[in-house]
Design a protein that fits this description.
alpha/beta; 32% strand; globular; single chain; two-stranded antiparallel ribbon; 203 residues; Rossmann fold
Length: 203
Amino acid sequence: MTNVYKQNQRAYDQIVLEFAKRNHVSLDGELLALAQKLVKHVGQDGHILDIGCGTGRDMAYFESQGIAVTGLDLSAGMLAFARREVHAGLALMNMCQLGFRTACFEGAWSSASLLHVPKQAAPAALREMQRILKPGGMLVLHIQAGHTESWEEAYVAGIKRFFARYQADEMKSMLAENGFSTCTVISSHVNNRDWLSFICISE
């Protein structure tokens, strides 16, 4: 499994500029609505952890709303780009082993990041997300819908990333088993992909 993380890390380090060119734009549509819900939930005194922050696009939105935010990513290249875009703290970290104390965030944002974790390791990642959230804290989780685990090429020829996709009931069960109540599940189709968004509360 370590090789999965290392290969994904190398892939993102190599595609960061092309990734940013296509994705580092203002939040809009469903993602903006989800981010607004998280901001409202945590309040102006809240602190959000952006898990898999990438180029810092989503962090920049939270900062623009006056919310404290910390970002983490497994790719040093992504974090280097993000440091030019945000003022908040950034950390090189695996989401399955979060280096933060228990119950120290009011909100967590995981957009298109858990999908790069093998399914057998996903429960550990969710347990860590639940651990660092205060009781009643909100997790917004955005993943791709499907059944498969596979390596796929995108952005730059010859560079592959790992993807794990889920059905809604599959992820709802996993969230419940790892300390979350699921408030809302939203399905969408964006950029020729089916997406699932979960708005969850830490128990």
